[in-house]
Write a structure and sequence with these properties.
The complex is a heterotetramer, with two copies of chain A, one copy of chain B and one copy of chain C. Chain A has helices at 18-29, 53-68; strands at 2-11, 35-49, 74-80. In chain A, 34% of the residues lie in helices and 39% in strands. Chain A contains two helices and three strands. By secondary structure, chain A is of the alpha+beta class. The radius of gyration of chain A is 16 Å and the shape is elongated. Chain A has a single domain, classed as Mth169, Chain: A (2-Layer Sandwich). Chain B has one domain (3-232): Class I glutamine amidotransferase (GATase) domain (Rossmann fold), CATH 3.40.50. In chain B, 25% of the residues lie in helices and 24% in strands. In chain B, α1 (14-25) links the parallel β1 (3-7) and β2 (29-33). Chain C is α+β, with helices and mostly antiparallel strands. Chain C has three domains: 1-36 and 185-363, Phosphoribosyl-aminoimidazole Synthetase, Chain A, domain 2 (Alpha-Beta Complex), CATH 3.90.650.10; 52-82 and 93-181 and 421-553, PurM-like, N-terminal domain (60s Ribosomal Protein L30, Chain: A), CATH 3.30.1330.10; 366-392 and 555-716, Phosphoribosyl-aminoimidazole Synthetase, Chain A, domain 2 (Alpha-Beta Complex). Chain C is built from 26 helices and 28 strands. In chain C, the strands form five sheets. In chain C, strands 8-10-7-11-9-12-13 form a seven-stranded mixed beta sheet. In chain C, a hairpin with a 2-residue loop joins β2 (68-73) and β3. The A-D interface holds A 2, 6, 8-10, 23, 26-27, 30, 32, 34-50, 55-56, 59, 62-63, 66-68 and D 2, 6, 8-10, 23, 26-27, 30, 32, 34-50, 55-56, 59, 62-63, 66-68. β2 of chain A pairs antiparallel with β2 of chain D. The complex binds adenosine-5'-diphosphate and magnesium ion. Residues 120, 122, 154, 156-159, 409, 412-413, 416, 428-431, 623-624 of chain C line the site of adenosine-5'-diphosphate. Magnesium ion is lined by residues 158, 431, 447, 449 of chain C.
């Protein structure tokens, strides 16, 4: 079966989020006073064909390790549709 | 003709554009900081220069398009005033919806900087009137997000109305895929709005405005603008 | 806390105790550990660096400052320096390279100069390995990502591949800036009673103690406290450049210092020590990005895009205004005082109190033992007769051109904006890059080079050859070398044989610099470039800057014209030792040729005259790949072939592929042949053949069309 | 109260996802045979101080319209923590 897996990648705590800071300032400048802070990360969706949702998650985790996530500065979370 | 060059934080071709315009035309050029809310009163021609406004963070040109000065810039364009966006400036124009479409990352996903041939597709704009139709000119490119895209029907409409002013080509004017440096739809390098007063282009005419640094094809571009202005008084 | 945990050696700890007359506290210990690390103190190399000549008519500022400055005439100076960012680039290639570029730009900026161009030296492992590919891709993207955005063109560089860099790639960044001589900002001019100001990004935990951690064994219990990666923000840097230049133009600052390794502590103590003042710093006033930071963390943070300013109080207000315009944080956090006392206050307590001059200057030097490698002669034993002549010359030349170290670097340098600022007359892809100076006739010429293989075979000769190559390149282009900067990339100095190699390389470089009257005005040392898999080749990288009086005195390369007569100037007995030709066959052997100062100087003078007299259409000094590679590159870039016959008894492979000595290939228009011959009369000079046709043919060797050459050179 | 709002942005159907294609190719080249396709988008987290979760959502929607999303090429979805 084909599973859609969503991967949410964000910078680790303590790593400077230069994009987030710039967006924050820009939104504040446009009058969004309720805004406290912004973090900008990546949203990657992969479709994998595996026997189970669990396998799909494992496969996606491997992809994160292999390429999608730079573990020196980033952290990630995975959601499998239908899991 | 009084030219205003808008400077955003992260713009890096503002000085170059001012140097090229002043050097090619000898007309008055002023820098205007993005936080201003009005253009100098006698402004005839507005340029959004290249660079990495706001670091190109989020999307290229997105934050600059929301800068305070942009209301006045859009108003200038709406009144029919001459408005030019080069490279990052082009991205700012599409992000401001002053021009249709969007610029996506180059298909190689790499930044590319090199001299580039362009075929002049339309000479009925104030920016290209001194070229001849089909002429091949050389302006350098230097961008990471230059793939111009537009939904199919809109693309057709743009082509039908002659909105494409420059197309990437080879030195013979052939516009094959080989001559496309970034994967742009129909090899599009520069487009003009319906009214013909707002031009966006990825290549850098200011980098082709002196024999010593990049050639002189860009001088014709600047002279076209001056001549159209002098004639039409826009 | 144990002093060893701070990375200090026993003698160093004792020295600190002696000077203080007490035990240092933890904050002080950590500070000293970083400040006396190899990276900051140069304790292994200070004595070696003294061997470099660094004075000369043109030198305005020599080593010891943020960058060197040479006089370009009429009140203008060129500030330049190279720096390595090897370790960070191996760990986080994109960010490591990006922050390397950012750091060297700030060094130039700290003098008040506007950065106008960069170059990058890249040394990668085996090109086929996936590790190399991902490191190389990350590093190249990082160099471009930062340089392009910050608006400083990358106009040239050097890229080479060798398995010794598999685990330990090198990233050296060079930057040059322009400054009116009467506007130079000095780090020696602070006086008591002035404000200490931090301009730029907020201070976070990034890169804390990066230098010291490198010298402590990594273990599980310090893993959690490992420095977090510094993230480069070219956008922030662009704002910083504009703000600092505006402040300098308005004469608002007394002194300025960039924050690189060891951040606040290094920059502020350096200004204090050099200016002969003390400082009281209130760390509570520093804008922070992370919570609960300890004072030593604040002191040692390597957060990027920050500058330290010393400001006369009457200008503080204006400084703040400029900062606000450029949307930068700016905080006064201390003051200069009489004396030598450097004090950090935090939460109402004295966190550290040290003599300013102790921090940067007084690290005990380490006289590492030096031993000539026993196997040196063995590498030299190499019999040319064991090398068969190529069976298929065409194949041989093509595979040489496809060797990644020699092949076209277009795929790399096209990712760099090489034109922004509108000064680039000759950009990457040429032996020498040239910048015009707006409003003047003269041009600045520069080139970056290295020859790790020859340095590994004979470090003295290799070191001299490295310098000579850059000077020859410049001379052929019409530029007299005015000064150079260097990055000494070497493995651990603690191995006596490795220290000897370093020592000899420096001596060789110094000898060549002396002969050419080309002083070393700035530089950088990067040691401990080794991994459990082995050490890198000795890799001194040299960036040399020269001046061309006017565009009319510049000679380009790759501009052959139909009918030109080709000349080879220089000796006809080069050497295959350490040549690209042998390396591409997997052999690193032989003894490189010695450096002949008289011949080299003679060559330079004649080459300069050749350029200024317009006696040639095109010229290229011979380097990697020898005459054959030079012929092929000239032909490919000109888009035209040539027919050549070699009537010299030297073995053809040696003549065509040998390297070393002052040699060049010139294309001379028929009408200038007599003049050319006069200029080179008394120096070896032979006529090779004529330019024309679609083929590059050497009688009795290869014959290939220009497009065959190009296809291999560009695509491998 | 401060709400964390997650914004997931992806390219619209029909817009060329160059990054997704490139990631797909590299992952396939690394032997991830189960992979069918990849889409690369953005994951933006904003913290806003509003009276209710509903207001937080509205505020985030306005930010998307104002800056975060380019509706010519992108579409988005919002999740408010605690809603
Ligand atoms: N990393 C790099 N960045 C920019 N330009 C580079 C880089 N590597 C090489 N180049 C350019 O490519 C050309 C070839 O460089 P190199 O490999 O050193 O060969 P050569 O010995 O012919 O100079 C030079 O013009 C150089 O400036
Ligand atoms: Mg070179």
């Amino acid at each position: 079966m084909t599973y859609r897996v969503s991967i949410f990648i964000e910078l680790q705590e303590g790593v400077l989020d230069i994009q987030g800071k710039a967006v924050e300032r820009s939104l504040a400048g446009m009058g969004h006073d309720a805004l406290r802070s912004v973090k900008v990360g990546k949203y990657i969706q992969v479709w994998v064909e595996t026997g189970s949702a669990e396998d799909a998650r494992k496969e996606a985790e491997r992809m994160c390790d292999d390429l999608l996530v730079n573990s020196v500065i980033e952290q990630f979370r995975i959601e499998v549709e239908g899991e | 003709m009084n030219t205003a060059v808008i400077v955003f934080p992260g713009s890096n071709c503002d000085q170059d554009v001012m140097h090229a315009v002043a050097g090619s035309l000898g007309t008055k050029v002023r820098a205007v900081w993005h936080k201003e809310t009005t253009l100098p009163e006698d402004t005839d021609f507005v340029i959004l220069p290249g660079g990495f406004s706001f670091g190109d963070y989020l999307r290229c040109g997105a934050m600059a398009a929301r800068s305070p000065i942009m209301k006045a810039v859009a108003e200038h364009g709406r009144r029919g005033g001459l408005l030019l966006g080069i490279c990052n400036g082009f991205q700012i124009l599409t992000e401001s919806r002053l021009l249709p479409g969007a610029l996506l990352p180059n298909r190689t996903l790499n930044f590319v900087c090199r001299p580039c041939f362009l075929r002049v597709e339309s000479v009925s704009t104030p920016f290209s009137s001194l070229f001849s139709k089909g002429q091949v000119v050389q302006f350098p490119i230097a961008h990471g997000d230059g793939l111009y895209t537009l939904p199919e029907e809109e693309l057709k409409a743009l082509e039908d109305r002659g909105g494409v002013v420059f197309r990437y080509s080879d030195s013979d004017g052939l516009t094959g895929d080989d001559a496309n440096p970034n994967g742009s739809a129909n090899n599009i390098a520069g487009i003009v709005n319906e009214r013909g007063n707002i031009l966006g282009l990825m290549p850098h005419p200011e980098r082709a405005s002196e024999a010593l640094t990049g050639g002189e094809d860009g001088r014709v571009f600047w002279q076209s603008i001056l001549e159209s202005f002098t004639k039409g008084g826009r | 806390m144990e002093y060893t945990q701070a990375g200090l050696r026993e003698t160093e700890y004792e020295e600190i105790r002696r000077v203080l007359g007490r035990e240092p506290n933890e904050c002080e210990l950590r500070i000293m550990g970083v400040m006396w690390s190899e990276h900051c103190s140069y304790k292994s190399t200070k004595n070696l660096l003294k061997l470099f000549p660094n004075n000369g008519d043109r030198v305005v500022l020599g080593p010891g400052e943020n960058a060197g400055i040479i006089d370009l005439g009429d009140g203008l100076g060129a500030a330049f320096k190279a720096e390595s960012h090897n370790h960070p680039s191996a760990v986080a290639p994109y960010q490591g390279a990006a922050t390397g570029v950012g750091g060297i730009i700030r060094d130039i900026l700290a003098l008040g100069a506007r950065p106008v161009a960069s170059m990058d030296g890249l040394f990668f492992g085996e090109p086929s390995s996936s590790r190399t590919q991902s490191l190389a891709s990350g590093i190249v993207h990082g160099v471009g990502g930062y340089g392009n955005a910050v608006g400083v063109p990358t106009v040239g560089g050097k890229t080479a591949y060798d398995p010794s860099y598999n685990e330990n790639p090198l990233l050296n960044a060079f930057c040059i800036g322009l400054i009116p001589l009467d506007e130079i900002v000095s780090s020696r001019t602070a006086r008591p009673g002035q404000a200490v100001v931090l301009l730029g990004s907020k201070t976070g935990r990034d890169g804390i103690a990066g230098a010291a951690f490198a010298s402590v064994e990594l273990s599980e219990d310090n893993k959690a406290s490992r420095p977090s990666i510094q993230i480069g923000d070219p956008f922030g840097e662009k704002l910083l450049i504009e703000a600092c230049l505006e402040m300098n133009e308005k004469k608002l600052i007394v002194s300025m210092q960039d924050m690189g390794a060891a951040g606040i502590i290094s920059s502020s103590s350096e200004v204090a020590a050099k200016s002969g003042v003390g400082m009281i710093l209130h760390f509570d006033k520093i804008p922070l990005r992370a919570e609960n930071m300890e004072p030593w963390e604040i002191a040692l943070s390597e957060s990027q895009e920050r500058m330290l300013l010393i400001v006369d109080r009457s200008y503080l207000h204006e400084v703040m205004e400029v900062a606000e315009k450029w949307e930068l944080d700016c905080a006064e956090f201390g003051e200069t005082v009489e004396g030598d006392e450097y004090t950090i206050l935090f939460h109402g307590e004295r966190a550290a109190s040290l003599p300013a001059t102790l921090i940067g200057d007084r690290c005990p030097l380490i006289p590492w033992p030096s031993r000539r490698p026993a196997d040196l002669e063995k590498k030299w034993e190499f019999d040319v007769d064991d090398i068969p002549l190529p069976e298929d010359w065409n194949e041989t030349l093509l595979s040489l051109l496809a060797d990644p170290s020699l092949a076209s670097k277009k795929r790399i340098y096209e990712q760099y904006d090489s034109m922004v600022q509108l000064n680039t007359v000759i950009g990457p892809g040429h032996p020498v890059s040239m910048l015009r100076i707006k409003g003047r006739d003269s041009l600045i010429a520069m080139t970056l080079d290295a020859d790790p293989w020859k340095c590994s075979l004979d470090p003295f000769r290799g070191g001299a050859e490295t310098v000579a190559r850059t000077v020859r390149d410049l001379a052929v282009a019409g530029a007299r070398a005015a000064g150079l900067t260097d990055c000494l990339n070497f493995p651990s100095p603690e191995v006596p044989e490795q220290y000897w190699v370093l020592e000899e390389c420096v001596k060789g470089m110094a000898e060549a610099c002396g002969a050419f009257d080309c002083p070393v005005v700035s530089g950088n040392v990067s040691l401990y470039n080794e991994s459990p898999d082995g050490a890198i080749l000795p890799t001194p990288v040299v960036g040399t800057v020269g001046i061309i009086p006017s565009i009319d005195a510049a000679l380009s390369a790759g501009t052959w014209e139909e009918g030109d007569v080709l000349f080879l100037v220089g000796p006809c007995n080069p050497s295959l030792a350490g040549s690209r030709y042998l390396l591409s066959q997997g052999k690193l052997a032989g003894r490189p040729l010695p450096f002949y100062p008289e011949a080299e100087k003679d060559f330079v003078e004649r080459a300069l005259k050749t350029a200024s007299a317009k006696a040639a259409h095109s010229g290229r000094a011979l380097s990697g790949g020898g005459l054959a590679a030079a012929l092929a590159k000239e032909s490919m870039e000109s888009g035209i072939g040539a027919s050549i016959s070699l009537s010299i008894p030297t073995r053809k492979d040696i003549l065509l592929f040998g390297e070393g000595c002052a040699r060049a290939l010139y294309a001379v228009p028929m009408s200038r042949v007599p003049l050319f011959k006069v200029l080179w009369n008394g120096y070896p000079c032979i006529q090779l053949g004529r330019v024309g046709g679609e083929r590059l043919s050497v009688e009795g060797a290869f014959s290939l069309t220009v497009s065959e050459l190009l296809s291999k050179w560009r695509n491998g």
